Amino acid sequence: MAATTAASRLDFAPAYRRPGPLRRLGRTARQHPAGVFGFIVLVLFVFTGIFGPALAPYDPDALSVGRPLEGPSLQHPFGLNQNGQDMFSRVIAGARVSLIISSAAIFIGAASGAFLGILGGYYGRWLDYIIQRSGEAFAAFPSLVLYFMLRAALGPGIEAIIAAIAIGALFGGNRVLRSATIIEARQTYVEAARAIGCSEWRIFIRHVVPNVLPLVIVIMSGALGGAILAESALSFLGLGPDVVSWGRDMSGQNLSIARTGYWHVVVFPGIAISLVVLGANLLGDSLRDIWDPRLRR
Amino acid sequence: MRQYILRRLVYVPLIMAIVSVLAFFTLRMPWAIDPVTLYVNQNTTLEQEQEIRRELGLDKPPLQQFFIWLGQVARGDLGETFRSRQPVWQEIARRLPVTLEILILSIFFSTLFGVTFGVITAVKQNTPIDYLFRFFAVFGQSIPDFFLLILLIVLPSIWWNYSPPVGGHIPFTQDPLENLRLYLPPTILLGVGGAAAMMRLTRSSLLEVFRQDYMRTARAKGLPGRAVVLQHGLRNTLIPIVTLIGGQITALFFGSLILEQVFSINGLGQFFLVSSVTGDFPVIQTLVLYTAIVVMGMNLLVDISYALIDPRVKYT
Description:
The complex is a heterodimer of chains A (297) and B (316).
Chain A: H1 2-9, H2 21-31, H3 33-55, H4 87-123, H5 125-140, H6 143-154, H7 158-170, H8 174-185, H9 188-195, H10 200-236, H11 246-249, H12 252-259, H13 264-291
Helix pairs in contact in A: 3-4, 3-13, 4-5, 4-7, 4-8, 4-10, 4-13, 6-7, 7-10, 8-10, 9-10, 10-13
Chain B: H1 2-26, H2 46-55, H3 62-74, H4 88-123, H5 128-142, H6 145-159, H7 176-190, H8 192-210, H9 213-220, H10 225-233, H11 238-262, H12 268-277, H13 281-309
């Protein structure tokens, strides 16, 4: 009896209590204002990409909703193009194709590239050799040449674009993940798991993969900016799908009209691309600083 | 060194063989576009279609086509384009000077500005100048190069009601001054993205080198600060920088195409773009082979330069 009271009287509460997850998130956010800005921009981008057409004040394809080539005004914040289409609505609608292509390319390319890197790093031997050598070969090949080849083979359509950007992103972070996995696979806890009889596959999925997962997110967010840039550049070249997109609105007729002084026709889609890519880059940089300072360049 | 180069060159035919098989058969997969459909209309009779197919050499089975093409390439004949029926080699040679000039100028500017600002920001680490340039570098990496080039055209038209000339090409050999007046502004802008990446790389590698013992020794023996940074510091960061320059040469091919598009210049990028849209197989096959050669040559040059930069690197 006396022993229990003595124990309960002892103050075991540590002087420092680890703050809750929300508080820790808030602290990290305050240290990385640029990352928070990037996160907000990307959330807005995804939101606009999904609900864009519902948000746009005008139908982005509707002709003559105002006087053609009118400059920015309260009613048309980004002005109108030569067909009398509302540029503000077109910029909002353009987010969708950018979101679809870049996220598809990232999830196919960067994610499977990350998986290959982890697999090669953990298994080693011939598998690692094949993955690393083909990674070098692909990294050397410009994705534009790859796209040209796929475009000639597959014709117009979204598949060739997604495939080219995805292959470009495939081996981006492969190397980094491979070395991180090699380090992780030599840790004592992996040895312990093996000692109690876990199968290699279980060790890989349950122990190694979760420990390098933050790096995968860092690499995917880093690749996102590049994917959006690539998509907009291909659309600008007239190679994109036949829908409203930022790159396409800056090319062709709009570009020649802009040369005669109607800057608003091309400048607002350009600002939209720059802003989203800036957001993706800032978020990627901050995530990298938080999760893996070794990657800092 | 010579042995190392020879051993590297042994791999070239092997890689070329793999690349040519990949390029050739990707274009002739069962689901691939049949280019003949792009050269017929509703008035073309079946016989005419067969005739076109025969002329383009597409009537034979793919494997036979492959060996015919391989035999041609081995003899130095890259075939004729489907569209203009001119030798592919001639069409490329005609457009090469423009694209080459764009590439050389933009690589020059991105390296010049990138390394200069990288050194400045590293020396002035954590000062307002450092923050300012790094802030610009993040922007430089985020703004699409075609947007920068468009602004180059659009901004003068707003401010001075003047639009830079578009579509003209004056060969450097004919009028160097006029040629540079035409190409300098856009190639400087094209180099912005590369310069930003180069600046960040130079800055971080230089900061790493600054922590080394030999840097302290150099300062301790009384070398002036400039000599310490440039001779001891920068020399030891050259390896990552040269690697990045090698990588940029392939990346800037995209940039060159963008520049050609914005300024209506008929260069290599345009030619390959049109060829891929019109299913011009001989051109695309040549493009892939050509890229493989350029990339392998680049990598070899970069590796050789390591030995020139750093005497500790020895190839045997």
